[in-house]
Design brief:
8 strands, eight-stranded antiparallel β-sheet, 2 helices
């Protein structure tokens, strides 16, 4: 009898947890990262394919220091109206990563047709990156629509955790 009550309670708890996750709100504190004082001397162009094309912006980003996931530097640049591209620099090694989610990203728009102020939200002590808009190269990813996308930076990759499509997209 006791076992069946525990089993029913466990199943009920898991069901509630699964239901709650569909509308969950993710926070930066759920994806904590220990902030390091890492500072590479320069960008590692040898092991970072494509980095030479963005030499100035990457070097400026490296100078600004750690701002993401404990030891990384997230840096970006414009690529046209409402378009943002970016990279993630490992502040320990200077190696540069170009996640597809940051390649020609379409910034989110406001109800009056303007662009939102912060299409990328992140913190130096968190592995969570929130993109408001359309991640990646929109023309190459038609399955994605305007919305909020929550990614975790782990093993030098962005992994989609959750997304909330915009209702009027």
């Amino acid at each position: 009898m006791k076992r069946s009550v525990i089993l029913i309670g466990l199943v009920f708890g898991l069901a509630i947890s699964a239901f709650a996750q569909s509308g969950r709100v993710l926070t930066f504190t759920q994806y904590r990262a220990t902030v390091e004082k890492a500072r590479a001397k320069s960008i590692d162009f040898r092991n970072s394919p494509g980095a030479r094309s963005f030499r100035t912006r990457l070097t400026e980003g490296l100078r600004e220091g750690v701002n993401f996931a404990g030891r990384y530097i997230l840096t970006g640049w414009g690529c046209g109206t409402g378009c943002i591209s970016g990279a993630i620099i490992d502040a320990r090694t200077g190696r540069v990563y170009f996640p597809i989610q940051l390649a020609a990203m379409a910034a989110g728009t406001t109800d009056d047709g303007g662009y939102i102020e912060e299409p990328l939200r992140y913190q130096k002590n968190s592995r969570l990156l929130i993109i408001t808009g359309v991640p990646g190269t929109p023309e190459g990813r038609p399955e994605l629509s305007m919305g909020e996308y929550f990614y975790e930076w782990r093993n030098n990759r962005l992994r989609l955790i959750h997304s909330i499509p915009r209702k009027n997209s």
